[in-house]
Amino acid sequence: MVTMKLTGQGWNRYSVCPNIRTKLNILQNEQRHWQVVSCGSMKFETRNMDESYIVDVTKKECSCRLWQLNGYVCVHSVATLAFLNVTPDGPYVDPLYLAAFFHNTYKKSISGMNGMNMWPSTTFTPPFPPLRRRMPGRPKVKRIRDASEMSRKYTVSKAGKKVSCGICKEKGHKKTTCTQVPRPPKTNVTKKQKIMQTQESVNMQGGGEDVVMGDALKPQTDEVMRVNESEQVVRVNEAEELVRVNQVVRKVNTTGQPSKRKKSERILKLKLAKRVEGEGSSVGSPMELD
């Protein structure tokens, strides 16, 4: 209040305030682009390209309504007053913008107030803060930090720092994206294809015999079948190719007791077999196969 009062002490009481004076000077420079045509009885039409507005100097009105809303003239009314060779201040500005109203606004002073220790005590119950209630949602664990505090206490931000490659020692990229190291082409191999490739490599290393199932490999109906090797001709893919197959014949179980199968070499090498502990486990006394 005191500062504003001291600011307006040197102003003339019947002059326009400096801020409004500055705006009027800007409008006087812009009114050069407007053309004014007289319509009679102090009414004028201002034109600029395809725009036109009606200004009534007697009623202090303009069809753009800025003169009525702001309280001081618009660019169209300034052009009209310049056509009449009249300055846009004085009676064409609302008295609210005069220095006399500014002085009346800030002529009073605000009295000071003592602190809480000087307030008189009363017999009324002092007000208490409202009871805290549980808000919906999960409660926050971290406190709300001030804007001046660091987001992380023991880490330093790497924003704006250039990374360097560990292979070519150049800056701007990492070793994972380095283009100077030749890399094998990426192949879209599925998990199932990887398993099939592993099984084929194990079969090649184990040297197992491929068994071709057909009508010639059906088990014989004799009581005891002996192991013999015979050559059989099998047609593959409708092409006449001779394939020698070693037919493996095993003995027929005539005792009625279930026979134990020998574990496949592929299962042993892939480590797919599991030992089951408990009743019936043969870990303590393994059986020897011939």
Structural overview:
With 290 residues, the protein is of the alpha+beta class. It has a domain of 104 residues. The chain has 7 helices and 4 strands. It has a 4-stranded antiparallel sheet with strand order 1-2-3-4. β1 and β2 form a beta hairpin. α2 crosses α4. The longest helix is centred in the last third of the chain and has 16 residues. The protein is elongated, with a radius of gyration of 52 Å. About 14% of the residues have low confidence.
Proportion of residues in helical segments: 10-25%
- What is the end-to-end distance? 113 Å
Which descriptor suits the 3D outline? elongated
Strand content: 5-15%
Q: Give the H and E element order.
A: HHEEEEHHHHH
- Calculate the mean pLDDT score and round it: 76
Strand order of the largest sheet: 1-2-3-4
Helix and strand composition category? alpha+beta
Secondary structure: number of strands:
4
Q: Uncertain regions: pLDDT < 50 for 5+ in a row?
A: 208-249
Radius of gyration: 52 Å
How many H/I helices? 7
Quick one: biggest sheet?
4 strands, antiparallel
Characterize this entry briefly.
Keywords: Metal-binding, Zinc, Zinc-finger. The chain is an alpha+beta fold and 290 residues long. It is built from seven helices and four strands, in the order ααββββααααα.
Write the topology of this structure.
Blueprint: H1 2-7, H2 18-30, E1 35-40, E2 43-48, E3 51-56, E4 61-62, H3 66-70, H4 75-83, H5 99-105, H6 191-206, H7 265-270
Helix pairs in contact: 2-4
Protein name: SWIM-type domain-containing protein
InterPro entries: Znf_PMZ, Znf_SWIM
GO molecular function: zinc ion binding
